[in-house]
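> forwarded from #structure-qc
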């Protein structure tokens, strides 16, 4: 049987009183019902990452990088703040580099009318620089109606699993060129 795909689920909001913890729990529970995935819930609120880039990596920063390196695919759970994604999420993404390479990234976004669409657009651009492949379909939630839909989770995880396994094989066949 195929080795389970290691998926890190990054909870991108660290705001006190955040909705992100609940959205992350909902997504992780839905993804956890799927066979063939090994989930690592990486909540930035608990990661103890430095607020500014340190001259030498802190132990928490090293642990964060190791978890990014171990994962074979990622799902970023992000809110929308002023038409983008939160600053602490950008700082966390910037703390790793090679660790992201040649792996797929999916998004669970939330907000009001736009459901986090602008945050995802900006994240796609950032993840392009990190040599990742971003998934076409997004789980996009409107906090006003709170109808969280498992069907979109299935579509996202189908894409993420295909790319995750394909890129696992590709990385094993030859080192990534970057
Ligand atoms: C600073 C700030 C800016 C926001 N800007 C937007 C926005 O541009 N679009 C949107 O749909 N919601 C916006 N919101 C509403 C958030 O989507 C909503 O508060 C959500 O709960 C934030 O996620 P969090 O609770 O996990 O931090 C904003 C919220 C905050 C705190």
């Amino acid at each position: 049987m195929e080795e389970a795909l290691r998926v890190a689920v990054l909870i991108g909001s660290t705001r006190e009183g955040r909705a992100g913890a609940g959205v992350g729990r909902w997504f992780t529970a839905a993804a956890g019902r799927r066979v063939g995935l090994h989930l690592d819930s990486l909540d930035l609120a608990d990661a103890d990452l430095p607020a500014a880039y340190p001259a030498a990596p802190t132990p928490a920063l090293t642990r964060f990088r190791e978890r990014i390196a171990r994962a074979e695919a990622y799902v970023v759970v992000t809110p929308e703040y002023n038409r983008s994604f939160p600053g602490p999420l950008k700082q966390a993404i910037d703390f790793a580099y090679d660790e992201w390479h040649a792996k797929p990234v999916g998004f669970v976004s939330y907000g009001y009318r736009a459901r986090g669409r602008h945050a995802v657009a900006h994240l796609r651009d950032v993840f392009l620089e990190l040599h990742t492949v971003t998934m076409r379909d997004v789980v996009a939630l409107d906090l006003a109606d709170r109808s969280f839909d498992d069907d979109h989770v299935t579509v996202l995880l189908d894409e993420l699993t295909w790319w995750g396994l394909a890129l696992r094989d590709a990385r094993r066949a030859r080192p990534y060129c970057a």
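QC bot note: The chain has a mean pLDDT of 96. The chain has five helices and six strands.
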